[in-house]
């Protein structure tokens, strides 16, 4: 996604402020969801091993410990490079989608520059497929990149698009996806449902970031929640199942409490303290230690 004006990178993850002049106070929707992330150790190992095998320096490095260490060092950051490249590509695709909506709303836009940025990196197919989907589904945008806030639970986030499709109000989240061997876009993760339901449960939406002006959230009454996978071969929209929304909302609220507890633990102070040796002569003589007394057991009113 693009960078919302009120989002900040902090030691506690991405957080939001109420205005440009105020510090961040609540976590972003994605930061909350990240509290439930599973281990990616296997993926990191696979990416590192693949990077070693594909490194053109590998054959020349065999038998040369110094050169091999260089190959290993490069491979160790393969997953981070892949992640960063994917994030940058996702930002470019999201920016293009935002410009398409702005043009449709007759608002200032940079659509040509957004398409050129994708084309310069050989990613123009994302824009081509997105345009086809936009036209086929007759998307009628209402609000692109709209920042929302929930003070009761304590979080904020930015929705990719509020729109009408087929007469239905829709909250939309785009996910840039690669294509599988069959030429189909890879499936969405179920976590997108948590992201969308958190957006639906917002209480306010941003009007002016500089002034810190907000208004009541106007699009939370039973909208259609759409996760839209945008790939180079197709765009595949998926609807959040209404029957599971309560469970995903409860899970999101639980993860919000996990984030708060983790932040409290970090900010409480040092978790481990050094223990110096006791002063000279402070050792008790053998057998003189005070015995540990068992806790008192309350006497019940009757026997069992």
Return the string of H and E elements: EEEHHHHHHHEEEHEEEEH
CATH architect. name: Alpha-Beta Complex
Helix content: 25-40%
Summed up, the helix count is 9
- CATH fold node name: Lambda Exonuclease, Chain A
Average pLDDT taken over every residue = 88
How many distinct domains?
1
Principal-axis shape: globular
Gyration radius (Cα, Å) is 27 Å
Give the beta-strand count: 10
Which stretches are poorly predicted, pLDDT < 50 over at least 5 residues?
300-304
Summarize the biggest pleated sheet.
7 strands, mixed
Residue fraction in strands: 15-25%
Strand order of the largest sheet: 8-7-4-5-6-9-10
- In whole angstroms, the N-to-C terminal distance is 65 Å
Describe this structure in words.
Residues 279-304 are annotated as: Disordered. This protein has 304 residues and is α+β, with helices and mostly antiparallel strands. The chain is 39% helix and 20% strand. The strands form 2 sheets. The chain has a 7-stranded mixed β-sheet, with helices on both faces. Strands 1-2-3 form a 3-stranded antiparallel β-sheet. The N and C termini lie far apart (65 Å).
Layout of secondary structure:
Blueprint: E1 7-10, E2 13-16, E3 26-27, H1 29-34, H2 41-54, H3 58-61, H4 65-76, H5 78-104, H6 111-120, H7 124-136, E4 140-150, E5 155-165, E6 168-176, H8 191-200, E7 204-208, E8 213-216, E9 224-230, E10 235-239, H9 245-267
Parallel strand pairs: 6-9
Antiparallel strand pairs: 1-2, 2-3, 4-5, 4-7, 5-6, 7-8, 9-10
Protein name: PD-(D/E)XK nuclease family protein
Region (Disordered): 279-304
InterPro entries: Restrct_endonuc-II-like
